[in-house]
Design goal:
Distance between the termini: 60 Å
Radius of gyration: 29 Å
Helix content: 40-55%
Shape: elongated
Length: 152
């Protein structure tokens, strides 16, 4: 075997290297001069996960579902005297107004309801009033996931 082990690389001045590294990353402590010529082991730092801001539709849907979890879900009425709300009532509470996020969240919720329960549903209230709490929750969770994956 003809493996060449000597290289033409210039040796690294360890002190100069440490000073340059300190200038690039001032949060690290300066290393003590090494007693031997052996290089220090590299420090492996885990990469931070990128933070993606929540889109307005996802936030509205998430807040509305949290509202339903807190105050309860109902059907046949926008707001029950005990405080529970139907799906549209929860959307209105979460959005605060009939804004773009409210409209888009309602459209996404209705689209997901049609995916899971058939295309005959013309509105969120008609679908909400015709299903169980578990069925409604399933649609809410799927709509939130879709909003997340669509980044809206």
């Amino acid at each position: 075997m003809n493996t060449r082990t000597d290289t033409d690389f210039t040796p690294v001045d360890q002190e100069l290297y440490e000073k340059a590294f300190q200038l690039l990353d001032p949060t690290t402590e300066p290393a003590a001069p090494a007693a031997s010529a052996a290089p220090a082991a590299p420090v492996n730092r885990p990469a931070a996960a990128p933070v993606r801001p929540t889109g307005p539709v996802e936030k509205t849907l998430t807040d509305a579902l949290a509202f339903l979890d807190t105050y309860g879900w109902t059907k046949y009425t926008l707001i029950h005297p005990a405080g529970a709300r139907c799906s549209i009532g929860a959307l209105r509470a979460a959005a605060g107004a009939r804004n773009a996020a409210y409209c888009d969240a309602g459209n996404l919720l209705l689209d997901e309801a049609r995916r899971q329960h058939g295309t005959q549903w013309k509105s969120v209230p008609s679908w909400n009033d015709s299903h169980t709490g578990a069925q409604v929750r399933s649609v809410w969770e799927a709509a939130i996931q879709r909003a997340h994956h669509m980044n809206i």
